[in-house]
């Protein structure tokens, strides 16, 4: 038999597992990636603020 072109058809079980995996990845993005990016952004803002504020004359 010759090989058919195209990818193998997904079963219902595989489709369901793939959707559940995508949902878990989305929840990880909301709980891990976004807070980490927020912390990096705040560090950048704090660094720029500290480097550009006027010097205190004593």
From TrEMBL:
Location of the protein in the cell: Membrane
UniProt keyword terms in alphabetical order: Coiled coil, Membrane, Transmembrane, Transmembrane helix
Stored InterPro entries: DUF4519 (IPR027960)
GO cellular component: membrane
Membrane topology, as annotated: Single-pass membrane protein
The family this protein is said to belong to: Belongs to the SMCO4 family.
Name the UniProt record assigns to this protein: Single-pass membrane and coiled-coil domain-containing protein 4 homolog
Organism: Drosophila willistoni (Fruit fly)
Lineage summary: Eukaryota, Metazoa, Ecdysozoa, Arthropoda, Hexapoda
Gene from which this protein is expressed: Dwil\GK19160
């Amino acid at each position: 038999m010759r090989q058919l072109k195209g990818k193998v058809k997904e079963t219902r079980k595989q489709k369901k597992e793939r959707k559940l995996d995508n949902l878990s990845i989305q929840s990880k993005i909301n709980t891990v990636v976004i807070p980490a990016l927020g912390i990096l952004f705040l560090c950048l803002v704090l660094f720029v603020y500290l480097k550009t504020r006027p010097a205190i004359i004593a």
